[in-house]
């Protein structure tokens, strides 16, 4: 009895003095629960490059806990080759159990080249949040088929690839590149304005996914273009007693403007007729010879220097 009174007196004195009195925790809380033990998880994914979504299945192959939620992170909104999907798995311990350990050693992971990233125990060790990284996605199939010409209009066309976000296409004449590479999201490109001379024309195209991964260049068959064919692609010269003009494939003609024809530049006045001699244009002067072609990087017949762009050098 004396011991108990002495302890109570000390406690009362401590409370009166405002002293902090340590609370004696029940160290036996976890002893009332059984450890979950090793957590065995198997991963399976149907995510592919080019997809905007995709599912990851996680199978629990051990006992004493259950999967509450599987969350796949995709910040970009789409998947591309080389991506490593991040997956967060939330597990709940069964009644009477707790997650006795964390870290990599708590798990046995398999499937999809899965790699452990992190884990956190919450709510008195009754909840485990695991984050893993799956293996890199393949580049995907960016092949393109059915490359063909619309020979009537000089339009290149090809089959759609559903993993492609864009295509790059280039024209070739007699196996030599013509102009620059064009980028489009469509499955065709109008090359009629670049088919400006006779020859054998082909085109090459390749697909790009949203991550800018590229497929192989694919090449079309050749389209032979004759002098007669050029009329429908780039137009033709016309003349009457008043002079020469250039008729476009649609029947229109340039007015008060320049037009490039087979690599040479010509100027057409307000009446639509080709002009020769000195041309005033946007504050500069250009010289067109008797054939109408603009001179460049040379000396004109009247002794004036013109630069690479054809403009007079003062």
UniProtKB/TrEMBL annotation:
Keywords for the protein's UniProt record, in alphabetical order: Repeat, Signal
Superkingdom in the source lineage: Bacteria
InterPro entries, per database record: Cell_wall/Cho-bd_repeat, Ig-like_fold
Signal sequence bounds: 1-25
Extent of the Cell wall-binding repeats: 255-274, 275-294
Protein's recorded name: Cell wall-binding protein
């Amino acid at each position: 009895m004396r011991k108990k009174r002495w302890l109570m007196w000390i406690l009362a004195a401590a409370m009166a003095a405002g002293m902090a009195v340590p609370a004696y925790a029940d160290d036996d809380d976890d002893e009332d629960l059984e450890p979950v033990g090793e957590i065995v998880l198997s991963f399976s994914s149907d995510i592919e490059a080019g997809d905007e979504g995709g599912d990851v299945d996680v199978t629990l192959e051990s006992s004493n806990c259950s999967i509450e939620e599987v969350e796949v992170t995709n910040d970009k909104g789409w998947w591309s080759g080389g991506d490593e999907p991040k997956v967060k798995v939330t597990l709940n311990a069964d009644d009477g159990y707790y997650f006795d350990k964390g870290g990599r050693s708590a798990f046995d992971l398999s499937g999809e080249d899965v790699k452990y990233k992190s884990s956190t125990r919450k709510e008195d060790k009754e909840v485990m949040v695991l984050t893993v990284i799956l293996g890199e996605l393949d580049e995907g199939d960016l092949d393109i088929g059915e490359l063909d010409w619309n020979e009537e209009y000089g339009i290149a066309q090809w089959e759609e690839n559903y993993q492609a976000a864009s295509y790059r296409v280039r024209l070739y004449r007699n196996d030599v590149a013509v102009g620059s590479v064009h980028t489009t999201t469509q499955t065709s490109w109008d090359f009629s304005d670049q088919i400006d001379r006779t020859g054998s024309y082909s085109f090459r195209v390749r697909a790009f996914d949203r991550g800018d991964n590229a497929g192989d260049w694919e090449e079309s068959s050749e389209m032979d273009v004759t002098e007669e064919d050029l009329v429908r692609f780039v137009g033709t010269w016309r003349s009457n007693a008043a002079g020469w003009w250039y008729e476009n494939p649609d029947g229109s003609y340039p007015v008060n403007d320049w037009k490039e024809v087979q690599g040479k530049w010509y100027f057409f006045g307000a009446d639509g007729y080709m002009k020769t001699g000195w041309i005033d244009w946007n504050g500069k002067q250009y010289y067109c010879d008797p054939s109408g072609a603009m001179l460049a990087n040379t000396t004109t017949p009247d002794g004036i220097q013109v630069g690479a762009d054809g403009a007079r050098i003062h």
